[in-house]
Structures are given as structure tokens and as C-alpha cells.
Amino acid sequence: MCQCFLSDARFYRLLFRIDQSIAEEEQQAGCLCGGVLHSARYPRKPRGFRLALDESYDYRLSFCCARDGCRRRRTPPSVRFLGRKVYLSVIVVLSTALQHGLTEKRRQGLIEMLDIAPQTMVRWRRFWHELFPQSRCWQAERGRFMPPVEIAKLPGELLGRFIGETLSDRLSQLLVLICPVTTSSSGFLRAEIDPQKMRS
Ligand SMILES: [Zn+2]
After folding, report:
1. What is the CA radius of gyration of the chain?
2. Pairing between β-strand 73-74 and β-strand 63-65 as defined by DSSP bridges
3. Distance from the CA of 198 to the center of ligand 1, in angstroms?
4. CA–centroid distance, residue 99 to ligand 1 (Å)
5. Is 108 helix (H, G, I), strand (E, B) or coil?
6. Which residues pair with residue 74 across a beta bridge?
7. Which residue among 14, 50, 156, 198 sits deepest, i.e. has the most Cβ atoms within 10 Å of its Cβ?
């Protein structure tokens, strides 16, 4: 099975650099109280393609306000980690993209190789078809796509709407578009659909 960019360390370093630049902007903006944000990263142990991941994948970038009495947590959007899911976002996208992603054989190969449980696939499909469409992020972005992207065909159809020579190019663009849903302040109906509470 050709994993191509999926087992290429450069692809993951690129995603990390995107995360870094998003995080730098958030840090410069500072806390709502005016306080300075200090690094307070979350340890992570993402599944899939471990050999291609350097130590930057051992944590998710996050900040905490330095001001006593505030200490507000601020976790920037990420193109690498989708809430608390243990698999990287790239895997959550590619394993559920029935169109415009990997060929069907490779998609099934990815699921088998990473030993993704059937109930996990059910949850991920539910994420794409029920939770993601309700997110503020998608509500804001869906109008960019004409004709409208069919919800039932997410995320594959969305992947096919980006212009890029390679699948990894289109995938990176999709990850940037959806990254607002990776934080708890993403505009989900918090109690029901906080992605931070959606495990695996
Ligand atoms: Zn603060």
C-alpha cells in the first residue's frame, strides 16, 4: 500500500508549522483580560504513522493567562488535532472521505493498517454528517462553495472542492478551513457537541 505523504515526515512538519503560526497569532493577541499568555501545552499521544512524527506531536499547543485571578486557558485551533480524538485530523478526514480522497482500496487499507474500530468510524461519520454541519465554522464557510456541498458527502466532497495539484495540498487546505472546530470555543452547542469531549 502506498501511503505517500501520509508516512512522509515533511507533511507533518508542514502541519506543525501551520499550527505554530496560528498559535503565535493567538499568543500575540493575549488574554481577554489583557494578560500575557504563557505556554501550557497539552500532552498528546496521537495514533497513526508514529515514525513520521517528531516530538512536536507529543503535545498540542495551548496557553494559559499569566495573570493571577484569571489564568484563563486558551487553546488555538489546530490542523493536527481534532478535539480530543486520538487519531490525527488527517486520518479522521481520509478514512471517512469516500470521494476525492484516497482510492477506495487505499482508504480501506488505511483503516485496516491503523486498526480503526468500526464504532470509531461510526462516530467519525456522525461528526461529519451531524455535528460538523451545525458548527459555526461550517455555517460561515459553506456559502463559499457553489454548488453547495452535500452534507451526506462530507468530508470527501469538500476535499474535492479545493484546488491543488496533490491530495496533500487539498487536504492541508481542508484542515485549515475546519480548524476552528478543533477548539472548545468553536461555536458548537457546547453541552452537546463539544469536540473536546468527543473521544477517539
Ligand atoms: Zn487573563
Report:
1. 17
2. antiparallel
3. 27
4. 44
5. helix
6. 63
7. 156
Residue 132 alpha carbon to ligand 1 centre in Å: 29
Strands laid side by side in the 63-65 sheet: 37-39, 63-65, 73-74
- Model confidence over 175-199: pLDDT tens digits? 999 999 988 654 443 333 444 444 5
What is the domain extent for residue 67? 4-197
Nearest Cα residue to 171 out of 182, 161, 181, 186: 161
Neighbouring CB atoms inside 10 A of 154's CB total: 22
Distances from the Cα of 113 to the Cα of 1, 9, 106, angstroms: 10, 18, 10
* Contacts with 70 (C-beta within 8 Å, 6 or more apart), sequence order: 31, 33, 35
Range 60-84 average pLDDT: 94
Q: How far is the CA of 194 from the centre of ligand 1 (A)?
A: 22
Q: Which three cell numbers stand for residue 113?
A: 493498517
pLDDT in tens, 16-65: 999 999 999 999 999 999 999 999 999 999 998 999 999 999 999 999 99
Predicted TM-score of the model (pTM): 0.88
Domain count, the chain: 1
Binned at pLDDT 50, 70 and 90, residue 129 comes out as very high
Q: How does the average pLDDT of the chain come out, rounded?
A: 90
Give the residue from 113, 96, 129, 98 showing the smallest Cα distance to 47: 113
Average pLDDT in the 81-92 region? 92
